[in-house]
Write a structure and sequence with these properties.
Length: 253
């Protein structure tokens, strides 16, 4: 069985921040500014973004033109001059590619990835791969992650891709409002298998928008990151800070 990807933190890293599910979009400038302020002031030695940084990503070429995507690139590029930033794809921004990463100076990482920090192994994931009960989504995920599907979508003119993005967002909102809608959560058995395979005791993920810590038994646990919505009441903007002392949730409100 192939080993998971692994990042060994240099000895100079004292603290590492983990964030996910900011769902940045032009219509939500409040969250965009909260993200900018955080990146400008964070004392972390490295930042890991575990997916869904964007509400939807239509292709790296969007960031080469004036607009929201270019503004996001500018903020990230400024932040990477102060510390390394690592990015893991989510279910909303899986089309983000190496061109945007190079433009911003961020490093793309696999899902999952083991982070070795202060002699402890942390297993990082977006989390969607472990929601085994969401069979329809996992089938869709397998289709859209293929190089052929990505190439076909990116071959369309940008305005067509923007229209597709608007349609996807509308469908997502409709689904959220469906009576009796139940969102699949991470499968505990699958999480335990991943942790044992990674020789780690803690899985950290986003995706579900249900922040908390869950005991998986046998000394294993999973920690769920918060989504961000700075315009909500109360606003949500939380990160997880890893240090020699362990993991601590930090509320940026």
């Amino acid at each position: 069985m192939e080993a998971f990807a692994e990042i060994v933190a240099p000895a100079s890293w004292r603290t590492v921040d983990l964030i996910s599910d900011l769902h940045l979009q032009a219509a939500d400038q409040t969250t965009f500014e909260a993200r900018r302020g955080y990146l400008e002031t964070s004392p972390a030695d490295a930042i890991f973004i575990l997916g869904d940084l964007f509400e939807v990503w239509i292709g790296d070429d969007a960031a080469t033109l004036p607009g929201f995507e270019a503004q996001c690139a500018d903020v990230l590029r400024a932040a990477t001059t102060r510390r390394p930033i690592f990015f893991m794809h989510g279910n909303r921004d899986f089309l983000l590619g190496p061109a945007f990463a190079a433009q911003c100076g961020i490093t793309l990482i696999d899902d999952p990835t083991v982070l070795v920090l202060h002699d402890r192994r942390w297993l990082l994931s977006h989390g969607d791969l472990l929601c085994l009960d969401d069979v329809e989504y996992l089938r869709f995920r397998a289709q859209v992650r293929t190089p052929e599907w990505k190439a076909a979508v990116l071959a369309h003119p940008m305005e067509e891709r923007r229209a597709l993005a608007r349609s996807v967002r509308a469908q997502s909102e409709d689904r959220k409002q469906s009576p009796g809608m139940v969102w699949a959560d991470v499968d505990a058995d699958a999480a335990r298998k991943w942790l044992r395979r990674a020789h780690a005791t803690t899985l950290i993920h986003g995706h579900t928008h249900k922040p908390g810590t869950h005991d998986l038994g046998d000394g294993l646990e999973r920690m769920v990151l918060s989504d961000w919505d700075a315009a909500a009441h109360p606003p949500r903007a939380q990160l997880l800070c890893l240090s020699a002392a362990g993991a601590q949730r930090v509320d940026l409100r």
